[in-house]
Amino acid sequence: MPITDKTNIISSMDQDHNRSFNTLFPYIDYNRFGMEWVNIVDELEWINSHNKVDTRNYEVPFAIEIGTLGQTSVFKTRATLCSKKIIYKGSYICISIVTFDDNGRPRNRGGDFFSARMSNDILQKSTAGRILDHGNGTYSVYFYAAWSGTARITIALTFVREFINYLKDALKTKEQLMEFTGTYIDGNITETTTCHLINEGIWSGMCEYTNRNAMGKTVLVCHKPVHVDCSKLYSTKISGKRLDLLAEEEIARTKTLFDRKTDRVLLEGMPMNLTIHDSPIYLSKLPICGPDLPIPLSDGYWANNRTYISMVCRSQQWTQEQFDKCAANKKFVASGDSALREFIGVFSEFQGHFDFHFMTPRIAGPIVTIWEPMFESDIIDNITQSECQSHNYVVILNFCFHYGAWSTRSFVERLVQVKLSVERLMKRCRNPKIIVKMSHSRDNVYMEQTIHSSNWSFYDMNRIIRRVFGGIGVHFLDVWDMVISSFYNITVHMDIHVVRQEFYLMLSYICPELVDSEIYSENN
């Protein structure tokens, strides 16, 4: 069964389940507070749907044993080929992962975070693996065999379940984790105080800075300066070093979680080398790039170190002539961080332009007045109906690296406010294109970074973004697999060849009618 059909069936089943659940338990419609357990129920139902447990009669209530269950071990965990021994170009390769702890004991629970890549360095071809967590300690990894010849597979255990639970429960629910330095200036008087973003909590006698249109209930709260008024706040800033200090405090507090016996992340038996036999590829026609596309078994592959082939939708390498047609009568507005700002360079290559706004409040970077940047919601709401009549608007957003240490509630609330502004824009303007550039993996070169800027947090942000913006016509520019499978160093600011491929894919969403429909009939 094609993966798109399977996705549609699962989606339909989920909708039926939700309808029956709401009918049986109507309180979900009028009092959702404190109902995080709904997600736990969904998780356990998923896990048990993959478990095979023999029914039996128990004569005693407990089995008594003495044992130790540790974290998942890269040395004991096994990855084996579950595809046919003869692999042909154009097919899918399946790898099965069964997790064990250091004692060789089955983990019997999911939640570990793996990354997978398949490549041929000589041919400069590569692709990322799609990892399916069955919830019971086993995982399936799927690779698209995009070339013939040798293939080198590496699967790494990036984060264990316990570490992710720590991030999710101890940090992502924690208020006031980030401590900004607020600078107040009034004439010759300068004072600094500490500021925090607070969504849940109480306070007294503080300077409050609110924007319900953009941040909802999240408030920037600063200790009141002694000699100047609250209105004289000039700037807020938090440095990367300050985030490192916060992470050091967490490491000291939960030391046992961070006692790593080894820095090795590759599973035992990696790399795995395979041979892919040549065979003609007849790719089924991909859908045009648009909103809410199904997530396939493979997002795509690098045909060489400068060209990425999407398998999500029809995309292409864009020429100047094609760009000019696409950009005609369009006004590009963007809001995000420096990972999105990199598009300015590629726009310039095509003699194009877009208005870029840095997100606020920012982490690191140069000090700018707090009154200079604008929130995403305000930028979108400032686009008037008359402006839409003279231009076709393209709004490009990203919610990425500066949000790594935000609490989940504050992050979600900000996204919801942006969603509402997008819906308002769609009502007053003629078919605006809204592009959300998703986050990608970055370099975590030391332990503190894996806490305040964890790649799992960015991965989870992508899931949240899809959930919040799904179904309203927003286009998701997902570049995670493109980045992790590339031949370039994985950093916040990727090599220009990767950025250019991200940009080309984005143009394919903005102007799908200009994409050559014949390119997918070629034998790759």
From TrEMBL:
InterPro entries: Ig-like_fold, Ig_E-set, NXPE4_C, NXPH/NXPE. It comes from the Eukaryota. Pfam families: Neurexophilin, NXPE4_C. Residues 375-511 form the NXPE C-terminal domain. Signal peptide: none annotated. Belongs to the NXPE family. This is NXPE family member 3-like. The gene is LOC102809052.
